[in-house]
Amino acid sequence: MWNVLLSYSGLVALIQLLLLPFFPESPPYLLLQKGDKAGCLKAMKQLWGEGNYHKEFDDMMKEKAVTKGTKIMNVLEVLKERSVHRQLSTMLLVLLSLQLCGLKIFRTANLQESIIPYVSLGVAVSELISVIFCSSIIDRFGRRLLLWGGYLVMALILVLLETSLLLSDRFLWMRYCSVILIFLFIIAYGIGP
């Protein structure tokens, strides 16, 4: 009954996709990234209700002042930074272990057992690519757009994946479509949610 479980996650993503446009951007993003003080205060009132949020606003302004002189590092600079190697190693270990999660879907798609380890390795590579890509575009597009777009693409991919899995017994090439759709789902998840 894994397909029911897969459909459930698609339903949750669809609900989040429908509700996301009604929520404001995060106040720290509006203030620190966009420099929109009025938008930040408006978002605070929308999220937390009426009240006096000047203390929180002042804390964010202090954070902005502290980080003003701080250089924002790109992905290559982070990889070269020795002080974060332990955290990066832990993250890489988690990413590599996640490749085992799709084995059931690959078996359901009737892939040959000898191909499944390579496909699982492709899943890990897809996750790594999406993390690197997302970290480079999140400041440009903002979290809201990436979340909204990511959930929309994920919902579409889940529908296509369910269809390809149902048709994989009839058409041999649909098995490989399922694998490609799983890669795309992981990339959409990593870039968005």
From TrEMBL:
Keywords, comma-separated and alphabetical: Membrane, Transmembrane, Transmembrane helix
Protein name: GTR11 protein
Annotated Major facilitator superfamily (MFS) profile domain residues: 1-193
Record keyword RNA-binding present: no
Keyword match Chloroplast: no
Main subcellular location of this protein, as a coarse class: membrane
Compartments reported by the entry: Membrane
Native source organism of the sequence: Baryphthengus martii (Rufous motmot)
Source superkingdom: Eukaryota
InterPro entries: GLUT, MFS_dom, MFS_sugar_transport-like, MFS_trans_sf
GO molecular function: D-glucose transmembrane transporter activity
